[in-house]
Amino acid sequence: MVALIFYGLMLGAAWLLGVVWLELDLLVWSERAQVSLGLQVALGAGVGLLAVWASRQSEHYTSWGKTLSEEFARMLGPMTPGQIQVLALTSGVAEEIFFRGFLQQALSGFEWAGGAGIWVGLVASSVVFGLVHIGPDREKFLPWTWMALGVGAVFGLMYLYTGSVLAPIIAHITINYFNLTHISRQAARAQSEEPPPSQESR
Fold this sequence. Notes:
Blueprint: H1 2-21, H2 37-61, H3 63-76, H4 81-107, H5 117-131, H6 138-162, H7 166-193
Helix pairs in contact: 1-4, 2-3, 2-7, 3-6, 3-7, 4-5, 4-7, 5-6, 6-7
Transmembrane segments: 6-28, 35-54, 112-134, 141-161
Keywords: Membrane, Transmembrane, Transmembrane helix
Domain CAAX prenyl protease 2/Lysostaphin resistance protein A-like: 84-178
């Protein structure tokens, strides 16, 4: 419910600022070249799975990756399949429509930037996307912020290439679904390994 409310507000803000105020199409960037629907789906799924694989490698081979995974498991705890699906779907759709469909497209329209406007929009929206991914402990979650900045730039490039938010949405949902599933399993395993509370004898 919290996720639905939060991401619903994000979509509402994107609609008010992008559609009502700037008269933008939040789903399709008509000024950019568009590619086939099949290629958009394949690109989104491929990038998403590659990012999930990279996450598992960082967790396995780096101390910061392992710490980050443990912190997320401790913070989020075990989740039901329904909760994971709702979080992955709502975050993927709302964030991509807001950060790519609205923010990147809007910032790319700066007249002072001239021909570099699309790159200004890409960089600025990616930086903002990274900055909103700051965890409660900045030191432990700093790698997450940097990864979000990098992934945001990749999503922005996909948006530029396809002219649609579909590929970034699919990639974002894929990443969140598999990573949340992994985190949930870690949290459940950690709870099962905890020793039972000791009972004092009367």
